[in-house]
Amino acid sequence: MRSLKVITYLLIFTLLLPLHAQGPDKSEQLGMALEYFSSAKYHEALILFERLDKEYKLNPRYHAYMGICYYYEWQYDLAVKYLESAIPQLQHFSPHERSVYLYANAESRFNLGHYDKAVPFYEQALTLCYDNEKGDAFYRLGFCHMFAEQWLKAYENFTSALLYYQRYRRGDGLEARINQIENMIKGCEKQLHKDELKYYAPPKNTPTDSIDLHKLYQDTLVVDSI
Questions:
Q1: How many Å separate Cα 47 from the centre of its chain?
Q2: DSSP state of 93
Q3: Using alpha carbons only, what angle is made at residue 208 by residues 205 and 211, rounded to the nearest 5 degrees?
Q4: Which letter does DSSP use for residue 2 in this model?
């Protein structure tokens, strides 16, 4: 979704303060961990964070960093453990930084196959992230609802993903994904039509191919909106 480089060097001095009293060696290790993290060297950063956390019990923000590192190390169960513990304690941080943690946690849940648990984290991320990042969250939400056979929600989210990609991500090499989304939208429409036929029985002796499926679909949308 993004580079996840939400940590800048301007933060390092402030973040070193809690460990400064413990000695220069510990603050140096933390500074090195933050430099690794800022450079997307997540494996190296994680080794140092883990060591310091065992010795000093790092604060929730550092645990969020560790969650991001676990996410990039494909250790999704540990990413969820650290991120879901830290996120509720980071409400006073910037919206975009929080959106990074929420999205990484949603992605971890998604990769673990916990689609229903991923949904609220994607939805929260959507309220905080930048417009050019929303397409990714809508894209994943489309699959979460599709796997649950919630075809209308899947259709709506895939459609939103398509709109955001076309408006904010043109030229990003997403042609294959856009083609996939268009196919997913068509697939959702077919499923919606099948579901509608269960509730709208045609008159006797009416050929199936004469049913106005588009009208049935529009009628369903009207009913759902009431």
A1: 25
A2: S
A3: 100
A4: -
Specify the residue for token string 């919206």: 95
How far is 17 from 161, CA to CA, in rounded Å? 42
Tokens 């409400």 belong to which residue?
91
Q: For the whole model, what pTM was predicted?
A: 0.78
Place of tokens 């856009």: 178
Q: Is-contact 139 127, C-beta < 8 A?
A: no
Chain-centroid distance of CA 225 in Å reads 27
Spatial distance between the Cα atoms of 108 and 118, rounded to a whole number of angstroms: 8
Only one residue has tokens 């809508």, namely 138
Residue 104: what residue type? A
Query: Token pair 């996410």 is at which residue?
Result: 71
State pLDDT tens for residues 155-195: 999 999 999 999 999 888 899 999 999 999 999 999 999 87
Amino acid symbol at 62? Y
